[in-house]
Amino acid sequence: MKNFHGVYIFLNDGKNNFTQKYFFPIHGCYKAIARDFDQDGDLDIATISYFPDFKSQPQEAFVYLENKGTNTTHQETFQFTPYTIKEFNDGKWLTMDADNIDGDGDYDIVLGNFVPPIKSLQMQSLEGAKRKPAFLLLENKTK
After folding, report:
1. Max CA-CA distance within the chain?
2. Residue 85 near residue 70, CB atoms below 8 Å
3. Whole-prediction pTM value?
4. Which pLDDT score is estimated for 118?
5. Interatomic CA distance for residues 63 and 27, integer angstroms
6. Smallest Cα–Cα separation from 38: which of 115, 101, 105, 95?
7. Distance in angstroms (rounded) separating the CA atoms of residues 110 and 133
8. Of 49, 61, 125, 126, which is most buried by a Cβ count within 10 Å?
9. Is residue 78 within 8 Å of 97, Cβ to Cβ?
C-alpha cells in the first residue's frame, strides 16, 4: 500500500506555479475523470483503482467524489464527499470513460473490467468460477 496514492488537486497561479489544494487517499488509484456528474455547476470526480486495498477497503476500486465545496461567494473550498457502488467488487476496473451514453443530457460512466480469455493457462482452474462482466454501465439518473 502506498500512502501517497490518491486524487490530488493542484491550482495554477497563472505563472505555472502549482499549489496542492486537495488530496483524497485511494490505494492504487490511477484514473480520475472530472465532470459535473450531478449537474450542480461544479466538477465532481470519478476514480478507479486496479489495486485497491482489497483487505481493508476494497470499495476503493471505484470512488465517486461529489463536490460540495463551492460556497455562496463562489470560492472553491475543496470539499468532496466520497461514494462507491455496490458493484465495486464485480470486476478489476482497468478502464473508465464518461459521456452522455443514454442521450438524456448528463454524464454516464462506463467501467471496463480485465477479463482474460477463459482458455488461458492461468484461467483453466477457474472455468467453473463465476465470470465477471466485461464492462459496467453506471447510468446517471440526476435528471
Report:
1. 59
2. no
3. 0.82
4. 63
5. 11
6. 105
7. 12
8. 61
9. no
User: What confidence tens digit (pLDDT) does each residue in 94-119 have?
Assistant: 999 999 999 999 999 999 988 776 66
All three cell numbers of 32: 480520475
**Among 69, 64, 75, 57, which residue's Cα sits nearest to residue 22?**
69
Task: Give per-residue burial for 92-128: e unless 16+ CB within 10 Å, then b.
Answer: bbeebebeebeeeebbbbebbbeeeeeeeeeeeeeee
Alpha carbon separation from 93 to 24, 35, 56, 123 (Å, rounded): 19, 19, 18, 18
Confidence of residue 71 (pLDDT cuts 50, 70, 90): low
DSSP state of 130: P
C-alpha–C-alpha distance, residues 42 and 90, integer Å: 29
Rounded to whole angstroms, the Cα distance separating 66 from 137 reads 19
C-beta atoms surrounding 16 within 10 Å: 6
Query: CB under 8 Å, gap of 24 or more: what pairs does 28-33 form?
Result: 28/2, 28/52, 28/53, 28/60, 29/5, 29/60, 29/63, 31/95, 31/96, 32/7, 33/96, 33/97, 33/98, 33/109
